[in-house]
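LAB NOTEBOOK - FOLDING QUEUE
OPERATOR: T.R.
BATCH SIZE: 2
PURPOSE: Compare the predicted structure-token outputs for two unrelated chains run back to back under identical settings.
PRIORITY: normal
REVIEWER: second-year student, initials M.K.

ITEM 1
FIELD SEQUENCE / FIELD STRUCTURE:
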Amino acid sequence: MIPFAPVLALLALFVGARSDAAAGTDAACPPSTHAATAKISVTAARKLACAQHAASDAQARRDRRLGAIADGWTREQQQRFADLHDAATAFFASSAEHETVPTEVDREIARIDARAALDDAFVADIERFERGQRPVPGETAVLVEDGRLNIAFHYRLRRLAAAEQRGDRPAGAVTTAAVKSTEELWLAYREAWVRFGGARFPDIPEDAWRAWISHVRAVQLQRAADRAG
């Protein structure tokens, strides 16, 4: 847990850092240093640099949206959100890095896109919850969604294990070990949501948050397994 600081100020630091980084990338999106290490073409390097630049700009906009929302929260709510933001950052980074398809720059762009999708969904969830569109409590929902998650998780692992046994996986491919380690980060992320939800929306039971986020993760794992073929 990080020491308490107003979330608006915290996110302002993120925005400033990203803006400084983006300032070093001109409108032409110059080649990334990745070109030297991966021996990829200048055209591919420009494509990657542009993707990185666009991702930085998009994240700065997300941080401003979150900061504007969090500015009106209580000290406890802001602290819980800071913890949630940390857990989200760890899980999203691992998922984007270890649960996306490989191959040179295409893999890097796929990772950037995967991370952006997770970040977009995170901000959208905060915004809709603030509008009153929150998880609906249900006595058996968490059991149903946990069961669905377990099925999706083990289905994903089985598909990966089968590919590993066939030996037809490209270098850098998703592995069972990577998915398992990412799942540990997801569990911390889920509980951070529960704590934040309890502080910000005390009328919503803890299991309603667990049921919702477990459903989201089950869908993510199922789709990843289906895409892998």
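ITEM 2
FIELD SEQUENCE / FIELD STRUCTURE:
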Amino acid sequence: MEFEKLVIRNPPEIGNPLVKHVGLIWKWGGLILVVSLFGGMTGCAAPNQKLLAEAQAAAAEGNYEYIIGPGDRLNIFVWRNPEVSIEGVPVRPDGKISTPLVEEIEASGKTPHDLARDIEKRLQTYIKNPFVTVTVVDFVGRYDRQVRVVGEATTPQALPFRQKMTLLDVMIAVGGLTEFAAGNRATVVRELNGQRVNIPVRLEDLLKDGDISANIEMMPGDILIIPESWF
């Protein structure tokens, strides 16, 4: 009890640059949580830098191939057989498509190259040595490969991943931050080596100060979480 009285009699100094964080934590639990905050701050810089380096390396080394998903639209060209070629074929919510002579075939989860080879196998019953080309004309992509933005973005949404997409590209697409966003406390949730990790990112430094060092490459399936400011 004596410790609690001491805490109440000695609030943090207003001039302290951390007072806005300390004030909130003070309200919730006093000096004990403040000490915990300082302990976390002193030990997090190096691990965060290592994590960011690993995430950047994974994005740079990734061999990206587009995977067809529900909502995509495909052009299917069968060489020398225009009667079975078709444009604008939608990939249904169940991941399948229908084309002339091929009533149903699974498209979602395949590359355009793989889907073309599968269609060729099905057409061999009707056409000698068919040669098929599949082109994606409207991109949505599988849900697990989209880049999703949640929280204090102007327009939170899921974006089709594009090769070499960066954090800056994502923020331009969603219209930037709201006035209530705590951009420098944002995180990117990413699968690395089979584990889900949180990568801290500095959106305010990137967007308001033009600090390009805060820009990172995105990967398929990334989730950008932008929290609300405390004050």
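REVIEWER COMMENT (ITEM 2): The chain has a mean pLDDT of 82.
FOLLOW-UP: none requested
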